[in-house]
């Protein structure tokens, strides 16, 4: 099945709700009220996403992180449709638990392991844009700094050496944890991710997963630094869809 | 009818007098099941039988109070049709023997209290008390796993933990205190009460299956800890935050149908308490069929089913004829549920098994335990602690201040709060560590500040003034972020109420809270009492530990104020007079090992005037940073403002307004006198600001300037303290990670 772009119709974003998702309402709020885009919450049992132009898998604890974060959700009925849309080149964004689900579903390479501190960590971090290959970072310069919060227990990105080289070669590493001056170092890496990786995309650039929460960083009011860096992730996607 | 239950005899904790009274009220011998039900509901934990008569003193009415104490949560009108709900719970005994499960289920319980008002839980706070983590491996173990329990549960269930406090004292070595507070948000029109008042309505048990966990949890909580307590882990319930998340979403969706006419969580006392209280409040009865209850194991006895405290369960009272509509929502979330009974006109709680009547009790009788009037006697120790010899003045005040900053009760709690998701829900405007209280945005365009405070060191020496101090501190914290205090809930934690000395400290604390609340005009909208916080092994009751959580309203975004110093060259001003009130101070106890002396007292008139002046100045835009002075005194408060602002300060101690009988510099720096604020303002606004304080009749002085890369205190031209920012940060930020062996 090929998903045709719905030309001439207002764009619509699906935010998938799994049992245990908990950033679903936040993502919906930001898309509707901050980005002014139509978005709907879509229950994970839905098996038809043909009304939607893009998909967001929100953060949370789908299925209570049982077995392994994201793995049960990766087998939800809706994921068949998400795979199809990914194949058709539609923008797919996985935030935090959504990133874990994309990895478990095999839509992104690597694995997300328990933080090296063995503790949940919630704090604001600095991110550097390593590549603008993803639809979601296409408007950003390499080296651009973004401030967003993280909140996770299993966010340590890991991938085998050879595959890591491949990721670099194909510019699939999108975001890295860095310090305030934009340099990576041990104390700026909050979870022990390999090479401080915070977000990656697939080879086509349409599937993007990241541990930080852009929806929590889209309004100045909520940022300790008066920033709204999360918006650029969503607005890049919106612009891309408008150009279709 | 007794044969079935007689096989499953379970011991009861009721006194002989209470059993006699039950017999008299019933007009016959209660059978074993009935006795077990009465035992659960008449436990101290559920019935407040010892505390009710004392708690009456607290003022509970206010212009914005919709529902006060007596329900699962207090309700406050925040405008435009919105309400917030607030409740506090503790899980002290369970956390003392199973810190992970105990703390997690404590969160689960308080979330249900908010949910069963029909409101969405939007924030959690935790107030924790442990032994000395610098010395005790056991206390470190408790701290580590209590925090992990709160983190795993709160994060998974999607409710942010936005604020809290942690205090360390030897008296909590075995009996740690774990208080959790939950804030809810909803529409006035969607409020649901825990009432069964329409005969014919369906009683639906929703959520987890009923099992043996948490059997006798309430009677376990109504006893002191002994060496055998470790064997009572089965009295601790099993947490399931994933199930809870589904229950939250399903319950709120069900409430949205308009057909849920009563809601109650199953906490202490299980089905017995939930059903008897709902029937009693609604003036009705309930017929219950036990064979319908979905069980975790098949061979549960009727007694076990009736008093099990298995977690993640709610009772819905659903309008007759709309059961299917509500059950469809439960099916969507794949939540287990069973229709277990009907509301009746009888006023009786009737328990049946396959149609056979096993228990038949008046709901009113079960829900209203006979009040106990306890004896109160002032303990001798209190008289002995009034006076202590003053310590020698330390020669190096810089090293004293650094040590104070590393005192675990004062040091940064980032080790704790960074394990909590404090952002989920995208409402948290002022996050942990940024201000004296957390600030959340509300959908009506206003903001709500929330904080919890306690001070068991002050309350031990002087329960009356100590309790006042706790309430005063929480109000100051709200004012510091720009909020006008709205309401509070209290959690009163003491030892065995049968001990007249313990009961005296309890009633003195309540008297203090009531006096302050009446003077300031702050209503109490709910609370909780936890007695029997003692451990028999060390033969030690905890220090009296009232913990107060309060909320305040901020109407405009511009009024939200943080505590970090902002600009080089700005003026530093202090409001309020410093007094020689060193009793229970961290300086006396942590630096000198001295317990005793006069604890700080609040002058209600000055307190009110000072808070009003600060609120006024904030609303006029005259201040850049505000921080209240509490634990560790002025020196610690200034260090915290420097650390969070990443800038130094120059302070002239001679300009600090002080009471005439205070002469020692250590007392000026470290006294914990109430009603004081430190403020940053600039040259442009300074005179107007001083005008406000003068008009209010408050002592107020410029004590220094913001700037440099060190915190410096001078007296005349003599330098008393000079500490580089990096050293301040090291002491304050790294202390707890060092204690926990991570650095």
Description:
The complex is a heterodimer of chains A (244) and B (743). Chain A is α/β, with parallel strands linked by helices and 244 residues long. Chain A has one domain: Rossmann fold (3-Layer(aba) Sandwich). Chain A has helices spanning 24-34, 77-87, 97-104, 161-169, 231-243; strands spanning 12-17, 38-43, 54-57, 92-95, 111-113, 121-129, 145-152, 156-158, 173-178, 197-201, 207-210. The mean pLDDT of chain A is 95. In chain B, a hairpin with a 6-residue loop joins strand 1 (65-67) and strand 2 (74-79). The longest helix of chain B has 21 residues, at 137-157. The model of chain B is unreliable at 1-9 (pLDDT under 50). In chain B, helix 16 crosses helix 26 (725-739), helix 19 (463-480) packs parallel to helix 22 and helix 23 packs across helix 26 (725-739). Chain B has 743 residues and is α+β, with helices and mostly antiparallel strands.
Break the fold down into its secondary structure elements and pairings:
The complex is a heterodimer of chains A (244) and B (743).
Chain A: E1 12-17, H1 24-34, E2 38-43, E3 54-57, H2 77-87, E4 92-95, H3 97-104, E5 111-113, E6 121-129, E7 145-152, E8 156-158, H4 161-169, E9 173-178, E10 197-201, E11 207-210, H5 231-243
Parallel strand pairs in A: 1-2, 1-3, 3-4, 4-11
Antiparallel strand pairs in A: 5-8, 6-7, 6-9, 9-10, 10-11
Chain B: H1 3-6, H2 16-26, H3 32-41, H4 44-47, H5 52-55, E1 65-67, E2 74-79, E3 82-90, H6 92-97, H7 99-115, E4 120-130, H8 137-157, E5 161-168, E6 177-187, E7 202-207, H9 217-221, H10 241-255, E8 260-265, H11 270-282, E9 285-289, H12 302-307, E10 313-318, H13 323-332, E11 337-344, E12 348-353, E13 356-362, H14 363-367, H15 380-385, H16 397-406, H17 414-417, E14 428-430, E15 438-441, E16 447-454, H18 456-461, H19 463-480, E17 484-493, H20 500-520, E18 524-530, E19 534-535, E20 540-541, E21 545-554, E22 571-575, H21 586-592, H22 604-619, E23 625-628, H23 633-645, E24 649-652, H24 665-670, E25 677-681, H25 683-696, E26 700-706, E27 710-715, E28 718-724, H26 725-739
């Amino acid at each position: 099945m090929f998903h045709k772009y719905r030309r001439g119709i207002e764009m619509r974003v699906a935010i998938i709700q799994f049992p245990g998702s908990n950033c679903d309402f936040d993502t919906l709020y930001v898309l509707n009220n901050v980005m002014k885009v139509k978005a709907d919450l879509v229950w994970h049992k839905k098996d038809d996403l043909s009304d939607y132009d893009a998909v967001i898998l929100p953060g949370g604890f789908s299925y209570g992180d049982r077995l392994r974060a994201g793995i049960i959700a990766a087998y939800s009925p809706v994921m068949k449709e998400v795979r199809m849309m990914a194949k058709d080149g539609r923008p797919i964004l996985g935030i935090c638990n959504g990133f874990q689900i994309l990895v478990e579903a095999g839509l992104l390479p690597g694995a997300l392991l328990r933080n090296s501190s063995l503790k949940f960590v919630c704090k604001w971090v600095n991110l550097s844009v390593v590549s603008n290959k993803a639809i979601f970072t296409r408007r950003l310069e390499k080296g651009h700094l973004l401030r967003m919060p993280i909140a996770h227990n299993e966010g340590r990105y890991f991938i085998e050496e050879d595959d890591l080289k491949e990721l670099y070669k194909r510019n699939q590493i999108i975001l890295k944890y860095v310090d305030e001056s934009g340099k990576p170092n041990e104390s700026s890496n909050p979870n022990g991710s390999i090479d401080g990786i915070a977000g990656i995309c697939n080879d086509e650039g349409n599937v993007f997963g990241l541990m930080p929460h852009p929806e929590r960083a889209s309004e100045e009011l909520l940022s300790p630094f008066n920033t709204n860096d999360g918006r650029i992730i969503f607005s890049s996607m919106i612009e891309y869809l408008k150009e279709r | 009818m007794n044969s079935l239950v007689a096989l499953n005899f379970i011991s009861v904790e009721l006194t002989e007098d209470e059993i006699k009274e039950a017999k008299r009220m019933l007009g016959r011998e209660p059978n074993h099941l009935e006795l077990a039900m009465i035992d659960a509901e008449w436990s101290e934990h559920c019935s407040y039988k010892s505390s009710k008569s004392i708690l009456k003193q607290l003022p509970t009415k206010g212009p914005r109070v919709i529902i006060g104490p007596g329900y699962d949560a207090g309700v406050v009108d925040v405008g435009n049709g919105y309400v917030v709900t607030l409740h506090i719970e503790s899980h002290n005994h369970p956390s003392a023997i199973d810190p992970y499960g105990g703390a997690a289920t404590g969160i689960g319980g308080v979330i249900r209290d908010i949910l069963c008002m029909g409101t969405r839980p939007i924030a959690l706070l935790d107030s924790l008390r442990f032994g000395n983590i610098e010395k005790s491996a056991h206390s470190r173990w408790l701290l580590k796993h209590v925090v992990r329990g709160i983190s795993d549960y709160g994060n998974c269930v999607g409710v942010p933990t936005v604020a809290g406090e942690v205090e360390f004292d030897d008296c909590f070595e075995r009996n740690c205190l774990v208080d959790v507070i939950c804030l809810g948000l909803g529409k006035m029109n969607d409020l649901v009460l825990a009432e069964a008042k329409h005969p014919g309505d369906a009683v639906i048990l929703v959520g987890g299956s009923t099992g043996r966990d948490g059997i006798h949890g309430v009677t376990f909580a109504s006893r002191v800890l002994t060496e055998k307590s470790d064997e009572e882990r089965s009295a601790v319930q099993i947490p399931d935050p994933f199930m809870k998340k589904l229950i939250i979403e399903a319950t709120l969706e069900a409430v949205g149908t308009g057909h849920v006419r009563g809601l109650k969580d199953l906490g202490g006392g299980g089905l017995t308490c939930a059903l008897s209280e709902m029937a009693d409040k609604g003036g009705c009865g309930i017929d219950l069929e036990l064979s319908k209850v979905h069980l975790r194991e098949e061979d549960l006895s009727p007694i076990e089913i009736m008093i099990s405290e298995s977690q993640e369960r709610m009772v819905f009272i659903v309008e007759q004829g709309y059961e299917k509509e509500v059950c469809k929502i439960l099916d969507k979330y794949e939540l287990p549920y069973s229709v277990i009974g009907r509301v009746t006109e009888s006023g009786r709680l009737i328990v049946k098994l396959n149609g056979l009547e096993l228990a038949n009790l008046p709901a009113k009788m079960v829900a209203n335990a006979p009040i106990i009037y306890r004896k109160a006697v002032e303990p001798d120790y209190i008289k002995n602690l009034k006076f202590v010899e003053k310590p020698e003045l330390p020669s190096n005040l810089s090293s004293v201040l650094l040590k104070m900053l590393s005192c675990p009760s004062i040091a940064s709690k980032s080790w704790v709060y960074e394990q909590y998701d404090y952002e989920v829900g995208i409402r948290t405007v002022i996050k942990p560590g940024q201000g004296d209280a957390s600030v959340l945005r509300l959908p009506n365009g206003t903001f709500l500040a929330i904080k919890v405070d306690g001070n068991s060191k002050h309350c031990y020496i002087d329960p009356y003034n100590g309790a006042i101090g706790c309430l005063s501190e929480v109000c100051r914290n709200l004012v510091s972020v720009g909020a006008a205090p709205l309401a509070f809930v209290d959690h009163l934690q003491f030892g065995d109420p049968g001990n007249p000395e313990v009961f005296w400290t309890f009633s003195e604390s309540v008297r203090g809270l009531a006096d302050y609340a009446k003077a300031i005009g702050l209503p109490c909208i709910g609370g909780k009492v936890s007695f029997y916080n003692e451990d028999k092994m060390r033969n030690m009751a905890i220090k009296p530990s009232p913990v107060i959580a309060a909320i305040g309203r901020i109407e405009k975004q511009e009024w939200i104020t943080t505590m970090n110093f902002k600009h080089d060259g700005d003026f530093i001003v202090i409001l309020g007079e410093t007094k020689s009130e060193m009793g229970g101070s961290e300086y006396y106890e942590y630096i000198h090992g001295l317990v005793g002396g006069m604890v700080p007292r609040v002058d209600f008139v000055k307190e009110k005037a000072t808070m009003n002046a600060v609120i006024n100045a904030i609303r006029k835009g005259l201040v850049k940073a505000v921080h209240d002075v509490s634990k560790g005194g002025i020196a610690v408060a200034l260090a915290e403002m420097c650390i969070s602002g990443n800038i130094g300060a120059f302070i002239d101690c001679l300009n600090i307004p002080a009471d005439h009988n205070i002469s020692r510099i250590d007392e000026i720096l470290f006294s914990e006198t109430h009603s004081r604020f430190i403020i940053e303002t600039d040259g442009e606004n300074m005179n107007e600001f001083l005008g406000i304080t003068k008009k209010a009749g408050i002592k107020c002085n410029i004590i220094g300037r913001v700037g440099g890369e060190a915190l410096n205190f001078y007296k005349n031209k003599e330098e008393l303290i000079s500490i580089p920012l990096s050293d301040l940060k090291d002491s304050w930020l790294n202390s707890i990670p060092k204690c926990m062996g991570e650095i």
